[in-house]
Amino acid sequence: MNRYRLSPLAVLAAAALTTVAAPALAADVTLTLEGVQARGGRLLVGLQTRDQFLKQEGAYGEIIADPAAGTRTVVFRDVAPGDYSLSVLHDADGDGQMKMNGVMPAEGWTMLNAETLRAAPRFDQVDFTAPAAGAVSLKASMIYPAR
Question: Is residue 98 part of a domain?
Fold first, then answer.
């Protein structure tokens, strides 16, 4: 049996070539968020996996402080492949919690397909798939309670 001894440099070079040749396993997800109102506070924008859905945690997140009215764009870079939900809360009072008025949100919010929801959402109603490579473009409109 012949044994070969590889130098550390050869091992590093082989590892580098393997890394270069491997396909990218991440996508950029761009969200166009329409109908943002200037209500102070901050926009909490997050992507959640099925296990994180409707919980305080998220896989990816962005915060937009004191958002101006209009359309905002958020880009999540290098999102791992998989299924995610999108959730946005306009946390006007800055407490990190969605205020409720009975069963209805008392602060601005949205999810994918929010306009079609008639009850608490299920993950499969509001999810999207991030591919192993490429880009995803999402669009959502904010929903605000009357003042």
Answer: yes
